[in-house]
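Researcher: We are triaging several targets before committing to wet-lab work. For this one, the compound of interest is PBG. I'm pasting the protein sequence and the ligand SMILES. What I need is the predicted three-dimensional arrangement of the protein with the ligand bound, expressed as structure tokens, so it can go straight into our comparison scripts without reformatting.
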Amino acid sequence: MTRTIRIGTRGSALALAQTGTIADALRRAGENVEIVKVSTPGDRSHAPIAEIGVGVFTSALREALLNKQVDVAIHSYKDLPTAPEPGIVLAAVPLREDPRDALIARDGLTLGELPRGAKVGTGSPRRSAQLQALGLGLEIVPIRGNIDTRLRKVTDGELDAVVLARAGLARLGRAGEITETLDPIQMLPAPAQGALAVECRVDDVDIEHLLRSTVDDEATRVAATAERAMLAALEAGCSAPVGALAEVVEDLDADGSVVERVSLRGVAAAGLDGESVELIRASAVADKSEAERLGRDLAAELLDLGAGALSGPGRNSR
Ligand SMILES: NCc1[nH]cc(CCC(=O)O)c1CC(=O)O
């Protein structure tokens, strides 16, 4: 009897698309795979994420893993709380999609073309702060719901535009509706945006090795490690208005040999009430093996620059 690996996922179209790619990779490696949908409070409630709390999309899946209802859990990495979960290991971080945010606006408009007072929908204080900081006079409208619901608000004329992760749109085959991909200089994504987290039980060493060898991408893991270490060190969990983007880059060592380094940019918003938005930015580079320390150091620098004065309601990195 060959084993069947049960993969737990949320039931949203996005989650199923993400899980499908991992299931396919495991099938190509000769494994039997079964996909198990797990409903989470985040799927059932329409309250703002800031009210229902961190981990709304992920804790039910982790429970199903610990209860042995499933053997693998697949999350959007950016939705995972930064605190490690006892009994669970992050077995793989697959190759990341484009991590940037995207604008989907009426009439093919870009950010710069939207008129003052244009209504832009987002439920994310991170996106909201960075949009306000552009000084374009945009009116930020809080929204929630799945990607389809959000896009419909633009087609229906209720909003002039929405901002969403490019990765989610791409996975749903809707990247064609993007009217502008936002440059990270204007809009840093959420830490680990566009990446998946593939978890299994700590004692399931076989499954861990299988996942590591079939779906893990080292550069993505290194980048996400730096971004999430920064977030964790800002002591804000995933509810702070924080953006981060790391990339593995080739560099020349002192002796002229090519080395891989990790380059990290971070932003934190302070004074997030109404009109007054102050963004604090910093960046740094370190050896690839120092991703975790780089993230912590950059957080310390952001705190020195005043990020500790984080304020405002509904802190949320997404
Ligand atoms: N917070 C919701 C969420 N969680 C993961 C994604 C898709 C993108 C990703 O995997 O990072 C989205 C939608 C969005 O932010 O537009």
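Researcher: Any quick observations?
Model: Residues 311-316 have pLDDT under 50 and may be disordered.
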